[in-house]
Write a structure and sequence with these properties.
This protein has helices at 32-40, 53-56, 63-67, 115-118, 130-137, 159-162, 164-173, 210-216, 223-235, 253-267, 285-294, 315-329, and strands spanning 5-7, 21-25, 45-49, 72-75, 82-84, 96-100, 103-104, 109-110, 124-127, 145-148, 178-184, 201-206, 217-218, 239-247, 273-280, 282-284, 305-307, 310-312, 338-341. With 345 residues, the chain is an alpha/beta fold.
Amino acid sequence: MKGVRCLKPLSPTSPPKLYSHLYVEKRVLNHPQTRFIMEKFDRSAIVLIDHYKEVFNRPNQSFAAQSDSKKLILAHKDGKFLHEGSQYSDGFEHPQFFYASSIMGCLYDCDYCYLQGLYPSANTVLFVNLEDAFEQLLPYLDKDTLIATSYDTDTLAIESLTRQTLLWLEFAENQKNLHLEIRTKSANFKPLKKMKPNQRVILAWTLSPQKIIDRYEHATPSLAQRLRAIKEAVEAGWNVRVCIDPVIYTDAFETLYPDLIDILFHHIDPSTITHLTLGSFRMSTPHLRALKKLHRSDVAFYPYEVSDDMATYPETIESTILETLVAKARTYLNEERIRTWQRQS
């Protein structure tokens, strides 16, 4: 591979449990975050490259095979970090809503995730120059702005590696118009334990029934682990949103998902949750076509309805999902704290 040079690992003090190889763009070799990560993975093979696309975009990759042995690519992002929030997400009425793309790929391996149809590789690209994202954001901060920091990944899952959540929180502390949503399936609240809660920051946990986690959400924490993390967060004073989204429609839907809401509020005081958001599975048709080619999950092959390049459940099923779950949620929360995603008419 042109431009590739392999370095010896650093001092062998601990065996790598993840990311056996680090591919590092030469221009970021001396970036502070690069050095921090290389010290964390001191038994990983370090491979110098000219550009991350040499590894991430090479042809004929197997997403499934790479999912079992993910590699980490450290790179510099030349383009924009900020992208306008899409029709698939809720901007919570903020005048400006963006998502930040500082990581490509995810530690987790959910069968229904659109990332499998978006990226050619299951490996992770971490853009270490997050300071440039902050510079790009500054011109927008004369008015109320929401940034989703983990739209295309799960930043909290690898926070001990990246420290990106910490950097976002430090930046947001002095930006009075900046609101952050940090969405996760992680049970990793530990990095935030010593942080002072910021009332303009929402920690948003995605929950699924344990049977759905077992079947489709590979390598993710269990429901019980996520609930423990939520409990820690609310007790520490953080604003927490719970997301049952996407809902995967199965034969057992009418017991699995209402039971999930009961389990949630058995463990978590409803008064401590800012919102419960509900939404059925949806995906752009190009991403769904790519997902089908992988033949990894039955979720890809449901007979969805397609409108405006979006694949969703038939309207009768979507209505059943939302009516069932909203009715259950109302037994714990008032209407204003229940949010739903549904197709635009």
